[in-house]
Design brief:
alpha+beta, 43% helix, 4-stranded antiparallel β-sheet, two-stranded antiparallel sheet, globular, 17 helices
Length: 418
Amino acid sequence: MNFRVSHLTATIFIALLLSACSSTPTQQVSPTETIVNQSEDAATEARFSQNLNQLIAQIAQTQGIPQASLESGFSDAKTIPSIRKLVLPPSGTFKKNWVAYRKRFIEPVRLKAGKAFWEQNQAFLTKVEQESGVPAEVIVSIIGIETIYGRQTGNFRVKDVLSTLAFSYPDTPNKARREQLFKDQLQELILMCWTEGGGTLPAKNSSQGLNPVRFNACLNQNSSYAGAIGLPQFMPSSIRSFAVDGDGDGRIDLKQSPKDAIASVANFMKKHGWQSGMPIYFPVQEGAVSEARALADGEPQLKYSVQDLITKGILTKEQGDLQAGGVEPQSKALIVDLPYPDKDGNDQVRYVVGLNNFLTIVQYNRSYFYAQSVAEFAEALGYKNQSVVPAVTSKAKPEVKSGEAVKPKKTASKKKQK
């Protein structure tokens, strides 16, 4: 995935690296680019090697991993100058365009692939949905937007990507902060690959049990130009924290195992606060655009209650079964702005009300454009963006235990497994 242009602030955008993924790929680069030394000059490469060796020595000391094993694994690491260009922020004249962004992801090829992916994994998707409370449509939508179900997972060696961005980040106002984020991801990659190669943590200065071939293969696996891996494009830290073994084969493989990818996406969403059976967003009432504009500050925080937005005319009680007991008046929300230029180049904005589940998707990729695309892609697959929590019509309120998933309604789009 590439660094996607978000209409959030630059500071929020940086924090992308701490979420599940880095972003979705816009460009494909020849695989040969990852194995050719493209260093700008000898001095740059020398500084890169020195800094990388210092980090390796630090990790070896703090984690008890033999330094020789790490030096061997990174002996051919190289800077990739083209990546430095890809992570640069857009120019000052760039206009954010929700309409173009949506069209890029919610389109026939991706939707067709999504339906095929659903049919191939229907039984497992149903199982994961019931266990996690995360709708199958949302899981399928995320994987489709990220990589078109594995078609676009990146052509860079992940160790080269993270090393380049950790020690040779382009000159930007927050260069130091971003480099630290990538240094952290590089350490997470090393720890991930050490355990994947059969090593233990803490390693206690021993490589006993380590398979060097598997360790190096993990370091050399392909990623996006921001270091995201596999069908769901998880950063190394997210793989270590949220990826799970969905197919039960004893290892996590986000590149080749759809079940591992499905289960890992669901686990990430659940751990980040997905509310089972709740909607993602509500449309703003047509006559309340000015009211919505006044509350849209770009900050991904649930600041307003649903009742506040009803009072201001931004929502109505009838919207999204508010009267049916699913979304309570005290539920929190935010105003999402989706800017775009019209055909004459004039600035326009579409507004929606984002609920808790919208913000959960933002934790996966910190972009309002991304989160709204996931929601609408899911709707195109048949997701009903409404509460399925039963209304309380009597004193016999149905008891739902804390953390228990409420099974979403079946939709007509879910085909029977062949």
